[in-house]
Each structure stands twice: as structure tokens, then as C-alpha cells.
Design goal:
Layout (H helix, E strand, L loop, with lengths): L1 H19 L24 H14 L1 H4 L8 H5 L10 H5 L3 H10 L14 H12 L15
Helix pairs in contact: 2-7, 6-7
Length: 145
């Protein structure tokens, strides 16, 4: 029962999102031109709360609450998403790379239109994603022999 509801919700979300992002929209700051661009924002408690809210609205449906990318929707759509709970996965990507993918979309992932999130909010979302590995519970200690 839950899977069909998630799939229908995702289809509606992507359809509405595609319609709202179809026209050209002005950016509030320049987009990074290369992967070498560093994140220009300094996180605050308020900006990270907004990033968490944005992640919950736009990312969690596919990437999951923890960021592991193992959701029913991702599986149903045949997506193999990066596991953001693994620090090695994120180490291979620059902040500019993450920003560009979030802002412009990639493959089946729709872009985060500037009407939904300003550039500073997307940069804070990059910081939030980079902190997902730190939010994972610590592994249980190995039993002593």
C-alpha cells in the first residue's frame, strides 16, 4: 500500500517540479563553473536548520533520511544512488560538484530551481550533506575475546 503511494507522490512531485522549473530563472549568485569552486558560505544554526528542511522536502524521497540512497523509490526507479553516509563517497566530490548537481540536476534527478532554493541555501545543503556521515550512530565495539 505504501509503495504505490510513494510512486504516485514522486511522479506528481517530479511533474509539478518540472513545470515550475521549465522557464529560465535568474540566479541570486553565480553558479560554479568547475569542480574547484569552494563553498562560499559559513554555516549557522539557522542556515543548517533550513538545509535540513530543504533536504527533507526535496532529497529524502530518493536519497533517504540518512542519505544512504537505499529507498523504495530509488529501487523502483532503478537508481543506484551514492551512499552519503560513507565519508569516502563524499571525499571524491568537491563542494562545487555537489552544488552543480543539486542546482542543475543529473540523469533522473530534477534540478533544484532557484525559485525553490537560493544559492546560499544550496551551498548550506552541501554542508548538510557533508555532515550526514557524522550523524550516523557509532558502530558497536567489537566483543573482547
Amino acid at each position: 500500500m505504501l509503495k504505490p503511494l510513494l510512486v504516485v507522490s514522486a511522479v506528481v512531485f517530479f511533474g509539478v517540479f518540472a513545470l515550475s522549473a521549465s522557464g529560465p530563472m535568474a540566479q541570486d549568485a553565480a553558479q560554479p563553473a568547475s569542480s574547484g569552486v569552494k563553498n562560499p558560505v559559513k554555516p549557522t544554526e539557522k542556515s543548517q536548520a533550513r538545509a535540513k528542511e530543504l533536504y527533507g522536502q526535496d532529497c529524502v524521497i530518493c536519497h533517504g533520511e540518512t542519505g544512504d540512497g537505499k529507498t523504495d523509490l530509488a529501487k523502483d526507479m532503478g537508481l543506484k544512488l551514492d551512499d552519503w553516509t560513507d565519508p569516502k563517497t563524499l571525499a571524491a566530490k568537491s563542494d562545487g560538484d555537489l552544488f552543480t548537481v543539486i542546482r542543475n540536476g543529473k540523469d533522473k534527478m530534477p534540478p533544484e530551481a532557484s525559485g525553490r532554493a537560493k544559492d546560499d541555501e544550496v551551498w548550506n545543503l552541501v554542508i548538510y550533506i557533508r555532515n550526514l556521515p557524522k550523524q550516523q550512530p557509532a558502530a558497536a565495539p567489537a566483543p573482547a575475546n
